[in-house]
Design a protein that fits this description.
The complex is a heterodimer. By secondary structure, chain A is mainly α. Chain A is about 85% helix and about 0% strand. Chain B has two domains: about 40 residues; about 60 residues, no CATH class. Helix content of chain B is about 65%, strand content about 0%. In chain B, helix 3 crosses helix 5. The two termini of chain B are about 45 Å apart. The chains are: A mainly alpha, B mainly alpha. Chains A and B meet through helix 1, helix 3 and helix 9 of A and helix 1 and helix 2 of B.
Chain lengths: ~210, ~120
């Protein structure tokens, strides 16, 4: 029996405390099937075993708490790691780049990684803390994103309450497709960037040869 | 090969790997969506409760309690694995009894629904 079966069984039997605990742990960075738990919770709402507003409040609170733990770990737990990176070759520049990236894309990154590209959520919590992204801004975008995520998945579970297992298998794969497309776009852009200087250098060589 | 060359090749290899992995997940998503469209029945798993299976298969819960030979309970939130443990049976055995009960119920009250799927995972 898989960990998903154990967790969903516990959710069915004990309800909200299990939902809260598992979501806190998962949002803090331990990979657990929380999307499936939300969809199942939506189904239990439809069956009359749970109350909709309670599920939304408890799940959102758990997710936000877990994210704050991740942010705090990045902000105060990285004191040993960041100076080491800074001392390394080009370390200072790398940290500055990471900070600039987080400050530029921070709000969008935090918001979209809560509900659209969920596998990246725990990583963004850590990097936002490490880059000392302003906590209040992180908190606001975090709450907005997490509430949207919870409402979206719980309502999907409520709507397709008789096919939780099938729905989550589709959603789980779809989340990785979205992540894959984003990572492929970033890597593709990098590859193009590496190709360009080589092409320019070749053109310069050809031009100088022609001139000679 | 200079450092830039290595970086370029590493980025290229990573790009290819990510494209392949994304393709695999995209194919799996489409296959599961097609399976969903063609099969209206949920695969019965150990986490499910009797009210959930009853809701999913549109079968009255008392049919399952009768088939398992256990007293019906209101708001029964026990997962099938718990019911199996309480009655010294394996989960697979409990799931088989439920499938048999569903087949019997559908034979006596046909609704035009397709037969229940195998006990394994969907593709």
């Amino acid at each position: 029996m898989s960990i998903t079966d154990h967790l969903l069984g516990a959710l069915s039997q004990y309800g909200l405390p299990v939902l809260f605990g598992v979501i806190v742990i998962a949002a803090a960075g331990i990979p657990l099937p929380i999307s499936m738990m939300l969809v199942a919770a939506g189904s239990f709402v439809e069956l009359g075993e749970m109350k909709l507003w309670q599920v939304i409040v408890v799940a959102s609170a758990g997710a936000v708490l877990g994210d704050q733990i991740g942010y705090a770990l990045g902000r105060w737990g990285s004191h040993h790691v960041v100076p080491r990176i800074k001392r390394s070759k080009n370390g200072e520049g790398k940290i500055a780049q990471a900070e600039a990236f987080t400050k530029r894309w921070g709000a969008a990154g935090v918001f979209f990684s809560r509900w659209l590209i969920t596998p990246l959520g725990p990583w963004l919590n850590l990097t936002s803390g490490m880059a000392e992204y302003p906590w209040m801004r992180f908190f606001v975008w975090d709450v907005l994103g997490e509430v949207l995520w919870v409402v979206l998945y719980v309502m999907l579970g409520k709507l397709f309450s008789d096919r939780v297992q099938a729905l989550v298998e589709i959603l789980g794969n779809l989340a990785w497709v979205v992540v894959g497309l984003i990572v492929a776009a970033i890597l593709g852009w990098k590859v193009l960037k590496y190709m360009r200087p080589t092409a320019t250098m070749k053109e310069e060589k050809d031009t100088s040869r022609a001139l000679a | 090969m200079n450092r830039m060359g290595w970086q370029k090749w590493i980025a290229l290899v990573l790009f290819a790997l990510v494209v392949v992995a994304t393709g695999v997940f995209a194919v799996r998503t489409v296959r599961r969506a097609m399976y969903w469209r063609l099969h209206h029945d949920e695969v019965i798993r150990p986490w499910m409760s009797i009210p959930y299976v009853a809701h999913s298969y549109r079968v009255p819960p008392h049919i399952f309690y009768q088939a398992l030979g256990i007293p019906p309970q209101l708001h029964d939130r026990r997962p099938l694995k718990q019911i199996a443990r309480e009655h010294n049976r394996s989960v697979d055995e409990v799931i088989t009894v439920l499938h048999e009960a569903i087949a019997r119920e559908r034979a006596t009250h046909p609704t035009g629904a397709p037969p229940p799927p195998d006990q394994g995972r969907s593709p």
